[in-house]
Amino acid sequence: MSAAAPPSGEDMPARSRWRPSRLLEYYAISVVWLRWVVVAGWIAAVAASLVYLPPIGHGGSDLGQLVSTDNAAVQSEIRSYEKFGVPLLSRVSVVQRKPDGLPLSVQAEAVQRARALTQGEFPDAAPIVAAVPVTNTLQLMPGSQENGTTIITMLFTPPEVSFAAQLAAAEKFAAAHYDADDAVVGVTGSVPARVEQGDLVLSTLPWLEAVTVAAVFLIVAIAFRSLIAPLLALGVAGVAILLTLHVGGALAERLGVPVPQETQPLLVALLLGVVTDYVVFYLAAVRTQLAAGAGRLEAAEHATARFTPIIATAGATAAAGTGALIVAGSAAFRAFGPGMALAVLIGMVVSVTLVPALLAILGRAVLWSPRRWRSAEPSTAEPEVGSGRWSRLLTRPWVAAPVLLLCAAGLVVAALPVRDLALGVSFVEALPADHPTRQAAVQAQTGFAEGILSPTELLLEGPGVATHEAELAKLQQALRKTPGVAGVVGPGDDAIPEELHLFRAPDGTAARYLLILSDEPLGASAVQTLSRLQQDMPGLVRSAGLTDVRTSIGGDTAIAQLIVDQTMQDLGRIALAALAANLLFLMLFLRALVAPIGLLACSVLAIGATLGLTTWLFQDVLGADGLTFYVPFAAAVLLVALGSDYNIFGVGPAWKEARGRPLREALAITLPQSARAIRIAAFTLAVSFGLLAMVPLRPFRELAFALSVGILIDAFIVRSILAPALLTVLGSASEWPGRRLFGRADALRRPDDVPSAEEEAEEEKEAADAASTRSPHAAPRAAGEAADATSPGGPDAAPAEEAADAASTRSPDTAPPPQEKAAHATSTE
Questions:
Q1: Which residues contact 649 (CB under 8 A, 6 or more apart)?
Q2: DSSP structure class, residue 737
C-alpha cells in the first residue's frame, strides 16, 4: 500500500517554537530519572493511608444534619416545647389508608394505641415517648381531601435520638403493634426520607464507581487506540481517590469540618474525570513525540516540561474556585468546598508526578493495542488537515467576529429560562417514585393535603396572649384565607380538648397554630408561601387586635425557607470569591488582564446557558417544584473552576507559542491539537458526571445533567469556538497591560510559518547547545534506558532503537526528522 502524500505547504502544520525554561527542564529530567522512586513513593502513601487513616466514609455526615441549632426555625420549636411541655410537630409518622374507607373499629383502635404508647404501656416502643393520631374522618382536620380513609399517627422522640434510631423505632413499633387489618401503608416523614437518601447513596456508590470506571476505560481506549492508556489513567485516578477519601476523612475528624455523605459520589466522579483530563494531555504530548521518533524518556520529559505548569495552574485554579465555597454562610456549602478543593489538589499533585514517571517507564507500551502491530507508528500523531484548516479560518478576524456574536447570542438565549429558577429542599420528593417511604407519603397527602406530613407551627408569645380568645380566633380565620394554606388548627377549634394544652400555654404567655400547606412542604412553592406569610404576619396580628406579641415560625418548611434565603444571600459572596480566584490565577498564568476577563466572561455565558437548560428541563418539562437549593450553585462553582481548567489547557499552549509569533497564528497552530485533547478530556469528564444520575435521587440527577451539559458546552462551544474567536477579535489588546509578548510577535510576522534557513540553523545550534549542557543525569539516563530496553514494550517497542535515542539525549523540542525538513524545504522553495 502506497503512503499518503504529505500535505501541501498551506495544510502543513507550522512548527512550534516553544522551548521549556531551565527550571521546567530540570524538573522534567528529575521526575523521569527518579521514575521508580516516584512510583514506589505513591504506592507507599496509599498503603499508609489505608493503614493509618480513617476508613472511607468516616468523618462525614448527612447534609440535613448541617442545619445549625441557632437556626431561627429550630429556636422557635425549642421555645414552643419549653412553653407547652409537649411538641406540636413530628417528623416520623405511621400511615394507614384504605381508599374505600377505614372501619370505625380501626380508627378507634388507632386512638387507643396512641394513648397507650403516650402513657408508657409499650416499653418496647422506646425511644418513642408519645404518639398523636390524626384522622380525616368527617374532615376534622382542615384541608382534608377525603373522609374516613386515612390515619396518620405522629410519633415523638427526644431530640437527642439520631435519625436512624428514630426510623428503626418507628418501623419496629409498626411491625409489633399493627396487623393486616390496620391497612398500614408504611412509615414516612422527613426524617425517614433523609435516612433513606443516605442509604441509597451508599448502596449505589459501588455500582456508580464500577460503571464510571468502565466508561472512562472505554473512552480513553478508543481515543488513544490502546488498552494500556486507560489502565494508566484509571490507576492514577484510583491513587488520587483513595488518598482523597482517607485524607479527607482524617481532616474532617481532626478539624471538625464535616464532609457530607452526599459528596462522596461527587468526589469520585470529579476525581475520575479531572485526573483523566490531566492524563489525556500528557498522553497526547507523549504520543506526538513518539510518532516524531523520540525515545520514551525524551518523550516523557517533553510532555512533562510542556504540560506540568499548565496542569499545575489548572489544578490550583480549580481548587481555588471550589474552595471559594468556604466563604458561604450556609453550612451545606461550607461542607462542599473543602472536600472538592482537596480532591482537585490531590489529583493534580498525583498527576504531575506519577503520570510522567509511569510514561517514562512504559514508553511506547502505553499505546499498545492488539492491532498496533500493523503499523510501527501511531496513526493519529498529527492533527487532521481539516481541523488545521478550520483553525486558520476561525482565527481570521472577518470570520471570528460573526462567530463570536452568533455563539454569544445562542448562549444568552439558552440562559433565558434561568429567570424562572426556583429553589427548594427536597427530602421525600427526592426519593424514587416506587420507594416505600415516598409511596406512604403520597397516600397520606392524598387523604389530607400536600403539607400534612410536615406542617408548619406558628408561635405567638406575649403577656396574657393565650387569654384573648376572640382575637386568636380572628387570626385563625385570617390564616385560613392565606393563599397556599390548606388548613389551620389552633386555639379556635372547640374539638381540641382544653386540658391537653396543645394550643394555649398553661401560663397564658403563648399560643400556637398548626398550618397545613397546600403544596409539597419543602418545595419552592411552599417556601414562597411561607415567605409571603412572614411578610404579612405583622399586619395579620394587628388586624386581629393583638398587641405586644412576638411571632415566630417553626417546622420543616421554615427551615427550608431559611436555607434557601441563606443560599441566595451566599450567591454574591460565592460568585465574587470564585470569579476572583479564577481571574487571579488566569492573570498570573497569562500575565494579562483583558484576556482573563474575556475568558471568564465566556465561562459565565456557558454557566448561564447550563442553568437555563437545567431549569427548563426539570421545572418546565418534568414539572419539579424548583431545583434542589445547592444544585445550581455547586454546579456553577464547579463549572467556573473546570472552565478555567480548559481555559488554561486551550489558551496556555497558544500563549506560550505567541512569544515567537502573532497570537492569531499561535492559535491556528496550537488549536487543532489542544482542542482535540480538550474534547476527549471533556467528554470523559461529562460522562463521569453524567453517571451521577445512577443515584436514584432527584438532586443527583439535577446535578448530573447540569455538570455534564455544562462541561460539553464549555469544551465544544466555548473553548473550541467562542474563546478563540474572542481572542482573535481582541488581537494584541488581549495581552494588555503587558506588551512584551506581542511586541516580539509583530517583529516576527511573515507570510507563512515556515522557518528561514538562518532560523533553522539557529534552532539546530540551540539543540546542540542544549545537548552539551544537559543535566548530569543525561549519561545515566541513556544507560538506564538501554537497561530498560529488555522490558516488554509492545510489538512496536524497538528496544535497540530506544537505547540509541536515549544516548543521543536530544532536547525536548529537537530538530525535526529528515523527512519533515525535506517537506519544509520543498514548501519554502
A1: 277, 281, 310, 314, 674, 677, 678, 681, 719
A2: T
Q: Residue 139 region, left (φ>0) first, then alpha (ψ -120 to 50), else beta?
A: left
The continuous run of DSSP H or E covering 461 comes out as strand 456-461
Cell for 46?
496509599
Closest CA to 525 of 573, 472, 561: 561
Tens of pLDDT, residue by residue over 808-817, are 333 333 334 4
Which residues in 497-528 are b (16+ Cβ under 10 Å) and which e? Answer: eeeeebbbbeeebbbbbbbbbbbbbbbbbbbb
Helical residues (DSSP H) of 15-71, grouped into ranges: 22-33, 35-52
> For strand 423-424 and strand 627-628, is the pairing parallel, antiparallel, or unpaired?
parallel
Q: Report residue 34 CA to chain centroid gap.
A: 35
Phi first, then psi: give them for residue 441, nearest 5 degrees.
-65, -40
Query: What DSSP state is assigned to residue 544?
Result: T
Cell of 331: 453550612
- pLDDT tens string 500-518: 567 888 888 999 998 989 8
240-283 pLDDT, tens digit each:
988 888 887 777 667 665 556 566 777 788 888 888 888 988 99
Nearest-angstrom CA–CA distance, 456 and 561: 12
- Asked if 479 and 540 touch (Cβ cutoff 8 Å), the reply is yes
Span 214-238, pLDDT tens digits? 998 999 999 888 889 999 999 999 9
314 Cβ neighbours under 8 A, 6+ residues apart: 278, 348, 644, 645, 648, 649
Q: What residues have CB less than 8 Å from 324, skipping those under 6 apart?
A: 337, 574, 577, 578, 580, 581, 637
* Backbone dihedral angles phi then psi of residue 438, each to the nearest 5 degrees: -75, -40
Q: In sequence order, what DSSP letters do the residues of 146-166 get, joined into one string?
A: SSSSEEEEEEE--TTS-HHHH
- Residue 611 pLDDT class (50, 70, 90 cuts): very high
Q: How far apart are CA 174 and CA 318, in angstroms?
A: 49
Q: 692, 709 in Cβ contact below 8 A?
A: no
Residues listed for the chain: 829
Coil, helix or strand for 510?
strand
For 180-229, give the secondary structure using H, E and C.
HHHCEEEEECHHHHHHHHHHHHHHHHHHHHHHHHHHHHHHHHHHHCCCHH
Q: Report DSSP state, residue 273.
A: H
* Cα angle for residues 246, 252, 258 (degrees, 5° grid): 120
Task: Return the closest-CA partner of residue 274 out of 306, 317, 309, 218.
Answer: 317
DSSP 99: T
Q: For 413-464, what is each residue's pLDDT tens digit?
A: 999 999 999 888 888 888 998 999 999 999 998 888 888 888 899 999 999 9
Exposure string over 633-671, b if 16+ CB within 10 A, otherwise e: bbbbbbbbbbbbbbbbbbbbbbbbbbbbbbbbbbbbbbb
CA distance 582 to 324: 10
**CA–CA separation, 230 and 228 (whole Å):** 6
Number of H helices, E strands in the chain: 26, 12
pTM of the entire structure?
A: 0.78
Tell me how far apart the terminal alpha carbons of the chain are, to the nearest angstrom.
29
Query: Cα 253 from chain centroid?
Result: 23
Give Cβ neighbours of residue 153 (< 8 Å, ≥ 6 apart): 93, 94, 96, 110, 113, 114, 131, 132, 133, 134
Would you state the pLDDT for residue 390? 73
Residue with cell 523527512: 819
Considering only CA atoms, which of 683, 676, 706 is closest in space to residue 218? 683
Cell 380501626 sits at which residue? 106
Edge-first strand order for the sheet with 485-489 is: 485-489, 510-517, 456-461, 550-554
Could you give the CA distance from residue 572 to residue 329 in angstroms, rounded to a whole number? 11
